[in-house]
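User: Just a sanity check before I run the rest of the batch. Below are the structure tokens for the first item. I only need the designed sequence back.
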């Protein structure tokens, strides 16, 4: 096996005088090719695909994908994932009756984006099997820009299935084109959906993102308010400091903490509002401001933090 790997390395390096690979048992061939594919570039992969051993494995894996036995179909998909091929075989297995096969096909799809595959993965977000849903979600996120049209089309449907999951994918893709379709669901009855909308808004940015996130700060659900607060902190919009400071006294601890951390991320202006909250008559606001300030500057006195905050605000106003 070690000799075979040495010869295989010479093949991938383009050595014209390398000897032929010895005949290996199936399991050893799989192991050798799998080890080779982990650390090669496109040129090396092209050379690997020319080897008779690679071609034989790919053809055998494709045949297994059409087997009536689901363990064999599963083995075929997993091998094609390792080999980096299977475009003519694997996509139809996204509709396989066995969830194990569908999940493996979704993992394969992450490296082979196409409009049709992305659309099928979006539908898989409502699959009855948890592993399929999670794998489809991860595959769409890895596809990035390739997944955007399929997600937009899905969000435009009258009643999108698994809406929160689709919005979560949209928030991880970080594309401003997804903000508009996501906003159409900001008044959904499900708090998880509204919170996911807030995540999409914060990740996509745009001139109106701040206004929409500030609106969601007043949402009746704590999950939505905390997500909106975190989004405002992430966008670094310091004029939102007064609204975030109001949330330091929120009845829900997670909202108070999200608001406090968001103010801390805003630098000088946020720090000043945290300092003011130390003198508030609202004990919730006092406690959260103290927690955040002690966490952020454990070795700095209160006076020093106030001075730093005022100087930072003055610097912002001079710009």
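Assistant: Here's the designed sequence for the first item:
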């Amino acid at each position: 096996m070690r000799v075979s790997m040495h010869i295989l390395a010479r093949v991938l390096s383009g050595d014209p005088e390398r000897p032929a690979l010895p005949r290996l048992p199936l399991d050893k061939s799989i192991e050798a090719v799998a080890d080779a594919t982990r650390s090669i570039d496109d040129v090396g992969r092209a050379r690997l695909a020319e080897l008779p051993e690679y071609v034989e494995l790919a053809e055998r894996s494709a045949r297994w994908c059409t087997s009536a036995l689901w363990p064999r179909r599963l083995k075929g998909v997993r091998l094609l994932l390792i080999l980096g091929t299977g475009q003519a075989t694997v996509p139809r297995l996204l509709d396989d009756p066995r969830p194990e096969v569908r999940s493996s096909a979704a993992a394969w799809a992450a490296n082979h984006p196409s409009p049709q595959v992305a659309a099928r993965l979006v539908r898989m977000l409502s699959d009855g099997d948890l592993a399929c849903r999670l794998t489809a979600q991860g595959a769409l996120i890895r596809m990035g820009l390739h997944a955007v049209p399929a997600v937009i089309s899905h969000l435009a449907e009258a009643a999108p299935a698994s809406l929160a999951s689709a919005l979560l994918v949209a928030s991880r893709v970080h594309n401003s084109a997804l903000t508009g379709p996501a906003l159409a669901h900001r008044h959904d009855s499900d708090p998880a959906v509204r919170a996911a909308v807030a995540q999409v808004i914060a990740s996509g940015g745009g001139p109106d993102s701040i206004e929409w996130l500030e609106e969601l700060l007043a949402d009746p659900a704590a999950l939505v308010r905390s997500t909106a607060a975190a989004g405002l902190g992430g966008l670094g919009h310091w004029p939102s400091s007064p609204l975030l400071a109001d949330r330091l006294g929120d009845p829900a601890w997670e909202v108070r903490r999200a608001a406090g951390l968001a103010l801390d991320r805003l630098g000088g202006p946020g720090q000043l509002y945290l300092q003011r909250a130390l003198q508030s008559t609202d004990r919730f606001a006092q406690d959260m401001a103290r927690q955040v300030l002690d966490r952020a500057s454990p070795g700095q006195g209160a006076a020093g933090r106030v001075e730093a905050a005022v100087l930072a605000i003055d610097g912002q106003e001079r710009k």
